[in-house]
Amino acid sequence: MSGTYDVVIIGGGMSGMMAAVALADMGRKIAVVSRGDPVCCLSTGCIDVLAAGNDPLEGIGSLPDNHPYRLVGKDTLTASLEMFRTVMSEECGAYVGDVNANRRILTPLGRHKVTCLVPATMEFADFHSDEYIHVISFNEMKDFYPNYITSRYKNSGCSIFDAGISTTMSIAERFENRQFLEAFISWLKGLDIPEGRIAIPAVLGMHFAVNVYNEISVELGRKVFEIPTLPPSMPGLRLFGGLKNALLKRGVDLYWGKEIYSVEKSGGQIEAVTLAGAGRSARVQGNAFILATGSFVSGGLHASMDAATETAFDLPVYLPGKRKSWFNDDFFAPGHAIEKSGICVDQSFRPVDSRIENLFVCGSILAFSEVMKYGCGHGMAIATGVAAANVCGELA
Amino acid sequence: MIKTDVIIIGGGSTGCGIARDLALRDIPHCLIEKGDFAAGATGACQGLLHSGGRYAVNDPEAAAECISENMILRKIGIKCVEQTGGLFVRLPGDSKRFRDMFLKSCEETGISTEVLSPSRALELVPSLSPSLEEAIKVPDCSIDPFRLCMLNITSSQKRGGEILTHNRVIDIIREHGRCVGVKVQEESTSEVREIRGKIIVNAAGAWGDNIASLAGSTVPMTLSKGSLIVTNHRLTNMVINRLRPSSDGDIIVPNEAVCLAGTTSITVTDPDSSDVDPAEVDIIATQAQQLLPEFVTTRLIRTYAGVRPLLKADGGDDRKISRSFKIMDHKNGMFSIMGGKLTTYRLMAEKISDRVMEALGLKTRCRTAELPLEGQEELSGYPLCNRLKILENIVCECELVTADEVEKVAREIGTRHIGDIQHRTRLGMGPCQGGFCTYRALGIMQETGKMTPEASMQVLREFLQRRFKGIKPALWGDQLREEQLVESICLGILGMEQGQ
Q1: I want to staple B302 with a disulfide (CB 3.0 to 4.6 A). Which of A259, A360, B175, B230 is the partner?
Q2: B282 in contact with A at a CB cutoff of 8 Å?
Q3: What sign does the dihedral A146-A148-A149-A153 (CA atoms) show?
Q4: Helix, strand, coil proportions of chain B in percent (round to 5)?
Q5: B490 near A CB under 8 A
């Protein structure tokens, strides 16, 4: 498989996929190249926009000047999140929330995570601590221990359902079976749970969770919500599944399980990349390229003993000093310096010092994004993806 | 109050060895350890059962002890010794004169050697640097120090030995100038108990002087910190030594699924020193890479450091201090033992137990060299096939530990310590270093009722902090990816950031 495109996007994570959606909607012919399924599959599926403060949209004004959000601006951020919500609701994965207000959702450790947009199945996860919650768990489920939650909330209870299997994905799969769902609902009804909310680990179906969730909520007449779990995380997988489907609907070509092994350049332009992977190699030609390969976790950046490299085009990488200074001593202290590493870009998302004119960079590979420190993971990916697509779409 | 004959302070290899030795001589005893077994130098060593080759040239006395103990331990401890064999590798530029001295000293000490051509050495260990000049084969082995301690303790427990882990000696009771007992404090309940005995044996390793000072005595020692790196997988199936005078970073030992590369030698004053400096990591990694070139791209999963309790030096290089041991009679009912190696732990236990017998006026002889370690038949041993038989409800995917195993250990030893579970099951010892499975193990421990959920949350925090301390000095490459993933799980999913 080979092809010629208006824009070739390297990286199939949140940022790359949203850039692809934006460009496809502008009528461009797009390819997305990815080494494999992205790290958003491992996430809670929630869209963290900016965790510090109550109002993420206002908050971006107080970020350092070199933070990628400052390049994006408030209008594009709002518009990109709106685009994301529209796409996801078309894919049976509606999101709720408001870019002007953070919400707190319950974690599997009984703590809170601050986030902004959440899957509809988590709409009621932000609750008052004096309200009764009833936690549902599954027999021998290995990634969920309700005691962590019930011990922190005096006004709570817990019941355990035997799903006949103990892993997150297998339980989620069973929820797509009608008989199983009905048995679960009738068991829940029989529990005689006091007035309050019902919390269930995020296993309510693989792809059609909203339907499963709605049915349970309606049948019980209660506020029900999902609690995100450790990977494999169903809300993360649903998020990826929804976006991937949106790309396929828009006629985007996906080169999955492939990575770049050579780059053809001419003057200040990248002309084509050759991809290697299982099966045949492919030559993908494009007028413009978007780099959205993510940071270290996704493999966009690679650190050696004392240096860092960018793995697709060997772009210059900003690194905050020597290895000794990469990490704080305290694991839990927000903001290890290494998080600042990445690719520095100009106002139009082109990498500085690279002399390539048709390459744009977005997502967590951007320098100074400090995703963990600011709690801005998916939000920053979506916003910079769409912003880079806007610039690139005018040219391609 | 507990009454016994001999009080052993320290649950490292020496203390555990003494407990077994006395048990086999039918002497009532009580062992006290402030943490878990092997919590000091024993557990932080390189897991090398020395052939003695490393000491043959400069420290023949220690070398002779090593080879004779090596031959005994491989017989009595088949389930904790892996007979890997070892190579002393000479690289371009390494002294040929030293090589000749090495061969001669080994012969004099009784260490068998075989000189191998580069091609023969590469057949045995294909990952060796192809530029090697030659290699000398010696009978080095790999040994599991934690399992060794547990097996020694089994013999003691079978014969009524009292074993108190997580108990700290806070005072030594003296009457008329003689030590007659100790006061110990339990770690989590802070309960203080008195233990009375006829003889006290101070086998506290690096903490030996702290213990002796409780009885108004001193134990002269030089404390030397050694740092090590754990690789993600085995790079060699034989122990690899550099053929040159002992220096930093010149040994790589295969141990179960990983390799341990080390060490450094830095004089310290605090027996609790456990910080690994990134500069030490650089030295070890650079040296290891000369022996095994692929070390440079290998994923490193952790670093750790231990403090060697060496005999007192008069200044100068810690490497030059003899690795032999000494027994001190404080003439007040207390004996101290210092120096030595994990390899010679049994001999050390034998010699000090002989002194104890003499002091008690008894004559039963030592049998620890003849009898196999007890409890080995129940051990599955490492081979993966043994673990694959039990693929039900795995909570630690790296080391294939099941929920049932975690629950069983938690119930049996009634522990509140996640480390105790890890030592006994290998949970969290693999590539994720407990990043995923500790949350699960603590969830299971809550359900057994041994630990409150509040306590387990605190334990999880402390565990992650300790884990990070070990990982941080060697954090690059693939391990950095893993680390950022674990960070995003802890902060992004579980919500463990500060201030909550």
Answers
A1: B230
A2: yes
A3: positive
A4: 40, 25, 40
A5: yes
Rg (CA), chain B: 23
Q: Is the pLDDT of residue B389 over 90?
A: no
How confident is the model at residue A208, as a pLDDT?
86
Predicted pLDDT at B383 = 58
Bridge partner list, A274: A262, A283
Please give the C-alpha separations between residue A358 and each of A164, A268, A351, B283, B428, in angstroms, as whole numbers: 54, 8, 10, 43, 46
- B390: confidence class by pLDDT, cuts 50, 70, 90: low
Cβ–Cβ contact A353 with B under 8 A? no
Q: Are strands B134-138 and B86-90 parallel, antiparallel or unpaired?
A: antiparallel
As a whole number of angstroms, the distance between CA B278 and CA B287 comes to 14
Question: Are the Cβ atoms of A304 and B477 closer than 8 angstroms?
Answer: yes
- Statement to judge: residues A144 and A266 lie in one domain: no
- Rounded Cα distance, B406 and B413, in Å: 11
Q: Same domain, yes or no, for A297 and A367?
A: yes
Question: Which residues in A lie closer than 8 A to residue B282 (C-beta atoms)?
Answer: 305
Cβ of B316 under 8 Å from any chain A Cβ? Answer: no
Closest to A105 (Cα-Cα) out of A93, A95, A117? A117
Q: Does B33 score more than 60 pLDDT? A: yes
Please tell me the predicted confidence (pLDDT) of residue B392: 75
Place of tokens 């007890």: B374
Domain range enclosing A170: 108-227
Q: Across residues B280-289, what is the average pLDDT?
A: 97
Question: Among B132, B121, B105, B296, which residue's Cα sits nearest to residue A304?
Answer: B296
Query: Cβ of A112 and B500 within 8 Å?
Result: yes
Mutation for testing the A interface, residue in B284, B446, B480, B486 having most A CBs under 10 Å: B480
The residue count of chain A comes to: 396
Total domains in chain A come to: 2
- The strand ranges marked E within chain A are 3-10, 30-34, 95-96, 103-106, 112-115, 118-119, 133-138, 156-161, 197-201, 223-227, 253-256, 258-266, 269-277, 282-291, 301-303, 308-310, 359-361
Residues in contact with B177: Cβ distance below 8 Å, sequence separation at least 6, in sequence order: B332
As for how many domains chain B has, the answer is: 3
Range of the domain at B184: 2-41+146-220+322-360
The yes-or-no verdict on residue B378 having pLDDT over 80 is: no
Please identify every stretch of chain A with a pLDDT value under 50, giving residue numbers as ranges. none
Residues 198-217 of B with CB under 8 A from A: none
- Would you say the C-alpha torsion A273, A274, A275, A281 has a positive or negative sign? positive
* Interface confidence (ipTM) of the complex: 0.94
With 0-12 / 13-18 / 19 or more C-beta atoms within 10 angstroms meaning exposed / middle / buried, residue A151 is: middle
My answer on whether B432 and B455 are in the same domain is yes
d(CA B214, CA B218): 9
* Residue A218 distance to chain B (closest CA, Å): 28
CB A347 within 8 A of CB A307: no
Q: Which parts of B56-154 are beta strand (E)?
A: 81-82, 86-90, 114-116, 134-138, 141-143
- Chain B CB contacts of A230 below 8 Å: 436, 439, 489, 493-494
Query: pLDDT for B413-450, tens place per residue?
Result: 888 889 899 988 889 888 888 988 999 999 999 888 87
My answer on whether A337 and A366 are in the same domain is yes
Residue A175 lies in a domain: yes
For A112, the closest chain B residue by CA position comes to: B495
CB–CB contact A297 B488 (8 Å): yes
Give residue B205's region: left, alpha or beta (phi > 0; psi -120 to 50): left
B289/B292 Cα distance (integer angstroms) = 5
Q: Is the pLDDT of residue B380 over 70?
A: no
pLDDT band for B499, please (50, 70, 90 cuts).
low
Distance CA A82, CA A88 (A): 10
Task: Specify the pLDDT at position B400.
Answer: 86
